[in-house]
Design goal:
This protein is mainly beta and 82 residues long. It has one helix at residues 66-71, and strands spanning 11-13, 19-24, 27-30, 47-48, 55-56. It is flat, with a radius of gyration of 15 Å.
Length: 82
Amino acid sequence: MKYDGTIVKMESTGTDPVTYHLPVGDDYIPISNYIGKYISLEFRGDIFCIGCGRKTSKSFAQGYCYPCMLSELETSKNCVMF
């Protein structure tokens, strides 16, 4: 089976057993079904911000462009302010 699209952070549900899903484009691939099997991923050279969707040359804070990393509330939850 082939999937095409932007990959974002893998999600998990449940606790016993844990079920993993990999969001690829509009699909959620049940990765738990592929444990112990061969899979292939191809990077096509495009990185898109998960905040604003624009194409960027680098990603920060697990998927944001630099301006969104500075402004999005999700990226500040791990910061310590003095």
